[in-house]
Design brief:
By secondary structure, this protein is α+β, with helices and mostly antiparallel strands. The protein is 49% helix and 29% strand. A hairpin with a 2-residue loop joins strand 9 and strand 10 (190-193).
Length: 194
């Protein structure tokens, strides 16, 4: 094997990496990014040669900032792990130009990728189930609040909104569902129990 071709597991890879962060307030975003970079510096398989932080800029009520890192990472497997662990928005490999990879390295990378994808998929499914559960129970709670508010007598949508704390725009959807379920009725702009 030619000497200039480096074995991917052993190659020291020089990269330019951009990591972005979005949030608020501005000071928190800037501080969090610096803490994140300090965490990277503590990893023995990663060497930061240079870091250039941008000043946070406001974007749609949030603050965005980024850092550009000139780094050396020890091997392709560590580069892939770095991408999963730190979620950079951009990775540019500046050196070396070529790699030689063993079949087992490619297999391990693909299997690690699959394992992480399955882990992310499980997190997403669990989150979806939790969201569905919360949405269902929140709708039930809102419906019950409306029914309790209507027990003493009929109310307009505006007064029902004030009584329940639910904005009129959102209240309308719940009211229509309760009408379809035949739990309430609407006559002359006044909602009441059936």
């Amino acid at each position: 094997m030619p000497e200039e071709k480096l074995i991917a597991e052993q190659a020291h890879i020089r990269c330019r990496i951009i990591i972005e962060i979005l949030g608020k307030p501005k000071e928190h975003v800037e501080k969090t990014l610096r803490i994140y970079v300090d965490k990277i510096k503590n990893d023995s398989d990663l060497v930061i040669l240079n870091s250039e932080f941008s000043e946070a800029a406001e974007k749609e009520k949030l603050w965005a900032t980024f850092v550009e890192l000139d780094m050396i990472i020890k091997g392709i497997p560590k580069l892939i792990a770095f991408c999963f662990d730190y979620m950079p928005s951009s990775v540019e490999i500046t050196k070396p130009e070529e790699f030689v990879m063993k079949k087992s390295t490619v297999e391990n990378l693909v299997n690690d990728l699959q394992a992480r994808l399955h882990e992310v998929d499980m997190i997403i499914k669990n989150q979806k189930n939790e969201n569905d559960f919360l949405r269902k129970n929140l709708n039930k709670a809102a419906s019950n609040t409306i029914l309790v508010s209507l027990a003493p007598g009929g109310l307009s949508e505006e007064n029902l909104s004030k009584a329940t704390g639910i904005p009129e725009k959102e209240l309308e959807t719940i009211l229509n569902a309760l009408i379809k379920e035949n739990k309430i009725k609407k006559e002359n702009g006044i909602y009441s129990l059936v």
